[in-house]
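Recap for those who missed Tuesday's class. We walked through two folding examples back to back. For each one, the amino acid string is listed first and its predicted structure tokens come directly after. Nothing is annotated here on purpose, so try labeling regions yourself before you check the end of the notes.
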Amino acid sequence: RNSLLYKIVSLWVVNIFLIIANTKMTDAFPDKYPQYLSLPVGAIITVFLAYQVYRLIRKPFDQAIANVENLAKGDLSIAQSETLENRKDELGKLARSIRKLSESLQEIIQGIQSSADDISALSQQLNSASQVLASGAGQQASSLEEISSSMEEMAVNIENSSANAAQTEKFA
């Protein structure tokens, strides 16, 4: 009973019964209800019921298509009428599914944004740690350079002392 197809078939069956009743009345009362009256009445009934089917399907279906197109364009804010979501037929299920899809996509995007923020914070921490390491490495390189320079001076002094000691030994 909650199916869209059921509603359409029901309206179609009602249309057939009304057309049969209209035709039977023309056959039963040809003088009071001639065919030139029954034909427009049957057409009006058919057009009215076809319009009811159109109203039943078209507006909700157009809204669902518009919402899916908005999702495809990246607009995750879905505005649906509650009456459409409360319908118990296929179009109501479609509307609820589109809303759930929109909510899921919003949650995924929020998760991605949160992860991106975390990655940004971690990269800033990594950057500051690498700057500290670079500064420490620079200080160590400069200390090693000073030690190397002092060692060279000591080697020169030891060489001079050794030469002086050798000359002192010759004099002695």
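Example two. Treat it independently of the first, because the proteins are unrelated.
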Amino acid sequence: NYKGSAVLTKVDVDGKVLENAEFKVINAEGKTVIEKLVSNEAGEVTATELAPGTYQFVETKAPTGYVLNTDTVEFTIEAEQAAMPKVVNVGEFVNYKGSAVLTKVDVDGKVLENAEFKVINAEGKTVIEKLVSNEAGEVTATELAPGTYQFVETKAPTGYVLNTDPVEFTIEAEQAAMPKVVNAGELANYKGSAVLTKVDVDGKVL
């Protein structure tokens, strides 16, 4: 008589295998029956010595730079099989990186293209540069690990004043399946203005 086993393959959105993701296996009652299963160089997470029943793989630690996927993956160890049971192939389980979008506008809410930005992390290090707003005024940053970042404008659209205010946003460490794109809101560019006061020789306003 044998016990069952199952294998899950960790990949990124492009199908590249990911090692060092950590999992536990829970049974139908939600009790942890195996913990600290780590994906190997082939991205495989293997659970062995399982009695017949229904189980779930639960990710407890994402690979470095990726968002923890809080979805669970269910599988079943059959109660009857001829001779040695086949390893249950649970399929692939994807980890993602985060992304964020900022919209460039003028004071009237009109979208502005060709503004240029960089993205800096919490330590002030530039992680992406030369992001340019498109026709819809959108500046999109992708492939971001969980953490706090800032959009920083490096070049204003032609005819506008550079806005030196940074716009902060956060890539969450855990999300179900594919993370939503973080909406960092709007950042306005302005044009300048000037005023001159007319006076006579005695300082009387005219």
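Answers for example two:
The radius of gyration is 27 Å.
The CA atoms of residues 99 and 142 lie 4 Å apart.
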